[in-house]
C-alpha cells in the first residue's frame, strides 16, 4: 500500500510540475475580424516552434511601409498542409489574411496566404 501511495504522489507531482507545459496562449490579443494585405513582400520565413513566423513589408492606409510579423501554426501542422521550410522566400510577393493585434499594431495571427501563382 505504501508503494501505491508513493507512486500516486509521484504521478500527481509530475502532473503538477508539467501542467504549465500544456498551457497555450489564446487569441485574446487578436481581433476577430481578419485583415487582407495584398502585394506584400516577404522579408523572412522562420520555420520554428512553437509557431513559424512570416515577416513582410506592407503599405498601410496612407501608403507608408510597415514591417509585419505574423505567426503561423507549428511546423508539424504546416507539413500536414503541404508547407516546407522553403515555402516562402525573401522577396516573394504574397497576399496575407491575418487577425491583426487589437491595438492596431502590425503583429498578427495568420489566417491565409496566397502565393503569386494563386496557390
Structure summarized in a few sentences:
Helices cover 23% and strands 39% of the residues. It has helices at 2-22, 75-80, and strands spanning 30-46, 53-59, 65-71, 93-101, 108-114.
Account of the 3D structure:
- The protein has 119 residues and is of the alpha+beta class.
- It has helices spanning 2-22, 75-80, and strands spanning 30-46, 53-59, 65-71, 93-101, 108-114.
- A hairpin with a 6-residue loop joins strand 1 (30-46) and strand 2 (53-59).
- The protein starts with a helix and ends in a 5-residue tail after the last strand.
- Residues 5-23 have low confidence and may be disordered.
Features:
39% strand, alpha+beta, 119 residues, single chain, 5-stranded mixed β-barrel
Order of helices and strands: HEEEHEE
Shape: globular
The separation of the N and C termini measures 62 Å
How large is the radius of gyration?
20 Å
Q: Which assembly state applies to the chains in this document?
A: single chain
- Which strand order spans the largest sheet, edge to edge or round the barrel? 1-2-3-5-4
Pick out the low-confidence regions.
Answer: 5-23
The tally of strands reads 5
Percent of residues in β-strands: 35-45%
Provide the helix percentage. Answer: 10-25%
Give the count of helical stretches: 2
Structural class: alpha+beta
Largest sheet: 5 strands, mixed, barrel
Mean pLDDT across every amino acid position: 80
